[in-house]
Amino acid sequence: MSYVIEMLHITKTFPGIVANDDISLQLKKGEIHALLGENGAGKSTLMSVLFGLYQPEGGTILKEGKEVRISNPNDANALGIGMVHQHFKLVHNFTVLQNIILGVETTRNGFLKMDDARKSVVALSEKYGLKVDPDALVQDITVGMQQRVEILKMLYRQNEILIFDEPTAVLTPQEIDELMKIMRGLTQEGKSILFITHKLNEIKAVADRCTVLRKGKCIGTIDVASTSKEEMSEMMVGRKVMLEVEKDEPKIGEPVFEVKGLTVSARHHTKKLVNDVSFSVRRGEIVCIAGIDGNGQSELIYALTGLLQPESGQILLNGEDITHKSIRERNSIGMAHIPEDRHKHGLILDYTLEDNLVLKKYFTRDFQKLGFRNFRKTRSYAEGLISRFDIRSGQGPATAARSMSGGNQQKAIVAREIDYNPDILIAVQPTRGLDVGAIEYIHQQLVAQRDEGKAVLLVSLELDEVMNVSDRILVIYEGAIVGEFDPREITVQELGLYMAGSKRREA
Amino acid sequence: MNKWKSLIHSTRFLLVKSLYFQVMNKWKSLIHSTGFTNAASSLLAILVGLLFGFVIMLFSNPKEAVEGLGIILAGGFGGGAKGLGQTLYYAIPLIMTGLSVGFAFKTGLFNIGAPGQFTVGAFAAIFIGIKWTFLPAPWHWIAALIGSAVAGGLWGLIPGLFKAYLNVNEVISSIMMNYIGLYAVNFAMKAPAFKSAPALFDTTMNLSSNVAASSVIPQGFFEDIFPGSIVNYGILIAIAVAILMYVVLNKTTFGYELKACGYNRDASRYAGISEKRNIVLSMVISGALAGLGGGLVYLSGANGRRYKVVDVLLNDGFNGISVALLGLNNPIGIIFTGIFIAYITMGGEYLQKLDFVVEIISIITAAIIYFSAFALIFRKIVKRITGAKDVLQIAETDAPKPDAKEDKE
């Protein structure tokens, strides 16, 4: 059997942690090889080793049987290895074409010669069905198209081995389907793909073989077709995982959180981003706002949490009008918010974990005296949360938030918000980009909140999550609530029709 | 018998070995501590700066270059006790403007308006020092200092308000405030309204008049330690303010909020911190620090500095940027870098003893300061040198860590 790339016994350590411990991975020509593992399992590190970003302490890399040394991304490129990073590496105010040729420009006498490049880019995009507009600015195109630009970048460099680092994390369901199609097309043309993910559905849909990592160790390589999702998740997490959420009948109490006629307008024109939205959330229930991304969910949540002033309407928490209250007042009355973007809103990445855990409490009497911070209390409080919520990090409370894995960053936010003991917990895509184990955990926490008699408002783009977790579903389309459903009485297909705006029912 | 011997041998060996590892680990953790990296990078930056200065000296006056380098290295010592005292006096404005820039940096703002804030602070101090003679001795200079801080703070307030409420870049607005400050002070110095006795401006000397004796910051014991120098309690005030800033930034909830806004404005807002208020406060404090610097410098008696009406922004403000960078924005670090740059500047002055053109001296000291500002780049280099290889060994000796984590599950 010939392998295009073999990584044998790779070991890579960082201070306090062994990221890769004797990991071997063999990629066949023309296959899609998935690399499965929880956040922090060492997938990205392994791929960074292959791409020349890190130097391993042990192990060898073979290309077509010959040992190679990859000390930087240029070496990797020369060997035909290309990578689409999770966070794209594009120049935002350059055009698509300029981005693709960046670094390998065709020139004549030192002047750019774009015509040839344009021809070959257009040819490539037609050949692989990667629809892009070569003259559009990257900042103007959708995330899905940006990803296609990244793929074209690899193809333009004639890479044979393509690494996709969690490519679906930022895509809508439709874009994911399209990406899968593209990936299959690429392998038919003889390219080999390494596909980093923790989404089992996607592996099932597209991968041929799958290597599972857990805590830096290689658990095994399996044939995808003959392995069930449950088996894979067990390999990944190390124990049986409930893919379905377990919960009892809700014990619904009085309304805690009421929204009446809320309207938010776009900044510079009259379009209403949130249009006359009314609903209420009662004690002991999880209400889910379902919808396709960009239908006003973000603006609705910003208005509810005080990050944005609504144009009109009223927000009541425990009967108190909080429409014009500041964010801190809302928090102190009993609102907690797991934000959509954990890097933008959720965490101060340059602060330590403990400083992030007290982000909404540092000013309370427990954590300061006459304006001086109480570091001892902060430390012990953080240690308490870390052990209660099993937040893993290199140096405990003193770890820089930036250096933590995404799942643990999210756990830290969830810990902080739940410990706030809110009456209403607003969770916006709390499981985005997380692995099965972490998703299970966060779902359990949400359900536990509900069972304690708290109100939970969940915003989700994932239909599985919507159907599984919620007690009541509100569908949002173009800023308006177009339907209210009991998850037990509606199918995913029907829900999809409402989300796409082709059906509507007055709530 | 042999058994015993070998046992003793092996235990001794083990002991030595463990001791060796302990020492090595201590040393390694020192090398890897951020404090060490920071200090090492600043020192390295200074070294390269000195080397560059030496090269310039070699070009301009090869015969005396080595001797010249010696004089620069001797710095303030070149003038004996007086020189050291003068070094401390020169350090006062550098520390204060360094604190001003560094404090703003820590909170995510680039206060390039220190020259203007320094100037208006100086004016307020001079004005109070000359005109408010009704105040008795300690209160007079204290009032003048407070006045300088208030004036500087006001000069910081305006760009702060613009930044917070209109999203005007503070770099642009504070540069403009520099010129407004400079020309407003130049105008006020010679304004007819202030010509009545005691006049603000000494037209015969073309300098600001001497401030009243009661408004001069006392020299106290510095007179005995550094005879002939004009250094006064101002340096102690500067150091105290630096320590205060360190405490504010690192120990208080206020500092926590300010830094949070600096690192991530959106997350701060999300957490209920009023980021607008913090931007304004941060600029006001930053401006007050620079303004106080102006006050401290110009309240030092007949031999101290007096205000010259020229159309040039004062260097003290801009030097603050390099002082802050070299001190990596750490208030305590800024005390040392402020004194260091004053020391080098003094060395440059003593260089006049040799046959160096005055401009060359300025270039040499500027080059040293310039390279010093590269401390951040050198920090990366230092990290690479000490970091790359040792990381593995550290990780091995720390091996229990990951295990402990697994135990928890």
Structure report:
The complex is a heterodimer of chains A (507) and B (409). Chain A is an alpha/beta fold. Chain A has 3 domains: 3-237, 3-Layer(aba) Sandwich (Rossmann fold); 254-334 and 423-507, Rossmann fold, CATH 3.40.50.300; 345-421, no CATH class. A 6-stranded mixed sheet of chain A has the order 6-9-10-3-11-12, sandwiched between helices. In chain A, helix 14 runs parallel beside helix 15 (436-451). Chain A is globular. By secondary structure, chain B is mostly helical. Chain B has 2 domains: 34-61 and 357-404, no CATH class; 83-354, ABC transporter involved in vitamin B12 uptake, BtuC (Orthogonal Bundle), CATH 1.10.3470. Helix content of chain B is 74%, strand content 1%. A two-stranded antiparallel ribbon of chain B has the order 1-2. In chain B, a hairpin with a 4-residue loop joins strand 1 (201-202) and strand 2. The model of chain B is unreliable at 388-409 (pLDDT under 50). Classes of the chains: A alpha/beta (507), B mainly alpha (409). The interface between A and B is medium-sized, with 39 and 31 residues.
- Could you list the spans of chain B in which at least 5 consecutive residues all have pLDDT below 50? 388-409
Mean pLDDT of chain A: 87
Strand residue content of chain B: under 5%
* Name of the top-level CATH class of the largest domain in chain B: Mainly Alpha
CATH topology of the largest domain in chain B: ABC transporter involved in vitamin B12 uptake, BtuC
Strand order across the biggest sheet of chain B? 1-2
Please indicate the count of domains of chain A.
3
Rg over alpha carbons of chain A: 24 Å
Helix percentage range of chain A: 25-40%
In quaternary terms, these chains amount to heterodimer
